[in-house]
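# step 3/5: fold
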Amino acid sequence: MQVAIIGGTGFVGGYLTDALLSAGHSVSLLVRRGSENKLRPAEQLRTFTGDIADGASIRRLLEGCDAVIYNVGILREVRQTGNTFESTQYQGLVNTVNAALEVGAQRLLLMSANGVKVPGTRYQESKYRAEEFALKSDLDVTVFRPSVIFGDPRGTMEFATQLYREMVRPPVPSVNFVTGSDAKDGGVVMSPIHVEDVASAFLAALEKDECIGKTYVLGGPEALSWKEMVSRIGAAVGREKWFLPMPIGLMRIGATLFDWLPFFPVTRDQLTMLAEGNVADPAIVKNLIGREPAAFSARNLHYLGN
């Protein structure tokens, strides 16, 4: 099968590419100018220079393709450059659906996120509206809503690496986000899922007609608190951390004043989503990929020590 990936040069995109090639599929990538050096393995890929705002470049990418994976998302907007949730997570998907319908690329796999909704944060709403647009189109669509994704970033950035650099490596206590004023309130809970399990889920859905029209919430085998996740990262690199409780409400006050600054660590929307939690039933991904999902363990976080 000829499969196009939009958003194939980043962390998850690289693993999606590897999984497709290993299964014998052919892969085409839409690559922004200047990102050509991020491709691996470049010699096995068809590449098209273009942008998700340009319907013509998307059509060129999708010509002759059977399926397309839309794997585009951002965590923070840069409004000065037009890099917004609306443009990347919604309008880019709309452009892709329209192009796919024009050229006959019938299958669409959409990367969304756990917890998307309307009303919600700008991030959540743009992702949710993209889901609705895709599912109401005439394409054969499968939607994935993963919890936080971890795994060897291979030169990019991912969740556990960021926590290691910002909270575990510095010789100061780590922050433990809590949802209330009580320091014992563990509030923030997530179901970290390994990137290879996410890629396997996409591959399985691509090859199963019964996945068409469905939405899958993907999560790893455990629901872990923020403190548990940071502690496991510390264990993986041989560092025991002390923790200072930080109520999310207090952080939100700071974000209200300063999250427009690029160096401020979190935005109001990110804090809102942290407080809501991000868990998933591990049986969903297990049934889809046919194996137990990988745990957020020191063994599976070994790459942090490199």
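# step 4/5: annotate
The CA atoms of residues 244 and 254 lie 17 Å apart.
# step 5/5: archive (pending)
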